[in-house]
């Protein structure tokens, strides 16, 4: 039973036992040297808390709102391609988990089953993320479909103009494309700011750009009236030797201000990571690897348990910091510090070696 898991480390271990080498490598690894992925983790480890004492923390509220939607915790489920490799019902299972727990799912156009089937699995707010795989008529059709299916937001991933070299699954001889609908990636390379403006005008929904990594592009996104700036480097799975998302955050929040909401992903493994991101200016975070590990470990119940553990870690850290609500978190609650461990995809847990074979 998922309730038997007391740490997310145990969930990762259960996922490893259930997954074949190829899907495990796809989920757990990143591109080339995996430097960007390790920097994501290192950036969290280089921040420490500054707790305040003698506050009444007998009642702690971990909830928030995002685009007007109530969330039990400020952790949404990031879009993941090929969810069917971790659970037979793929996106439907994750949507059910989002509904059961009380958070927002962002559904990838590169996962199965259809966007309509996934949308029907939960009444919770959901957002559709699109990879461009066709011309303008194709894009309009996808927007029409997601709106008719009841999605409350529309997201374009902008850091994938060229598909990366993800060497772990390459060495395993396993390809995610063999498990899903054909992906004509050539169209993605043609997307420009003009195309983004056209899509935003047509969609007429809360509009997100996922993959913003610099203040310059955040400024352009705000000028294009984007509603949500999603600070992301694709979990280190696209451009290698990039900087960590937490290291991007300050310059991005400075130019965005209150003109858009900010999501951050990349390297989030603990409730304490969530609080650090919020303290530095993110409105919410999104989890990818943790979501996939929970799904592989025990389906919808596994994803719910991942979120429950993050919530408990958040509650404990908030209480010990003298914070009773998410809105109280500010930069004054964190400070630079030396990391104490070498970063890797699982370095948040003391018993996990970060070995591709585990």
Helix content range of the residues, please? 25-40%
**Number of discrete helical segments:** 12
Rg, Å, rounded:
19 Å
Strand adjacency order, main sheet? 4-11-10-9-8-7-6-5
Structural class: alpha/beta
Element pattern in H and E:
HHHEEEEHEHEHEHHEHEHEHEHE
Q: CATH topology, anyone?
A: TIM Barrel
CATH architecture: Alpha-Beta Barrel
Q: What is the level 1 CATH name?
A: Alpha Beta
Distance between the termini: 23 Å
The tally of structural domains comes to 1
Strand content: 5-15%
Give the name of the CATH superfamily. Answer: Aldolase class I
Largest sheet entry: 8 strands, parallel
Layout of strands and helices, then pairs:
Elements (H helix, E strand, L loop, with lengths): L7 H11 L2 H8 L6 H11 L1 E3 L14 E3 L2 E3 L3 E3 L13 H11 L3 E4 L6 H6 L5 E5 L5 H13 L4 E5 L9 H6 L20 H11 L3 E6 L2 H9 L4 E4 L13 H12 L4 E4 L6 H9 L4 E4 L1 H33 L12 E3 L22
Parallel strand pairs: 4-11, 5-6, 6-7, 7-8, 8-9, 9-10, 10-11
Antiparallel strand pairs: 1-12, 2-3
Helix pairs in contact: 1-12, 4-12, 9-10, 11-12
